[in-house]
Amino acid sequence: MLPLTTQIPWLAAAQAQLRDAISQDRLSHALLITGSPGQGGEWLAYWLAASFYCELAPTSRPCGECRSCQRVMADEQPDCLVLRPIEDSKEIRVDQVRELTAYFARREAQPRCRQCPTKDARRADAGCRIDPR
Length: 133
What we know:
The chain is about 35% helix and about 10% strand. It is built from four helices and three strands.
């Protein structure tokens, strides 16, 4: 995946809208980022997640270098889980979404937000859930 500081021209407008929403504390509780494979939708979801966890944060532009940004990019941030089809399945299963919901419900820590970027959301009844705290 590209570094978080990469400038992707066709995502600039989406990034600007997200930066404005973050700075005005008006980010929706859920976002569905769509696009054709390889056009940066997954990268944009990671970029958004890193925006919340960046140690320079909350910022509208993640640094991509701090430990928190690195943890998001490595799928190691405890409150940012990526929902992907498992095993040989091509779809995200309902049980996966249920497990995710239960996971967030039982978390004792109250982070700024909880996120779940969903890979290929067209195949699931889920998107990028952002649960502000």
